[in-house]
Amino acid sequence: MTLGALHLMLHLVVPDAEALTAALDLVEPPPALRASFKATLSSQIAQRTITYDPTQPGPRAFQVVSRVGQDEELDAIVAGWRAERQADVRLFADDLRMSLGAARLVDRSGQTYLEFRHQISPNDGPVDALVSSRMIGEMALDPQSGRLRYVDYKIVKPVRLDDGTIISEYAQRYTFGYSSRFDVSYVSRYELEARGGRWGFRDSRRFSVIINDVNFSLAGDARQELASR
Question: pTM of the predicted model, to two decimals?
Answer without folding.
Answer: 0.82
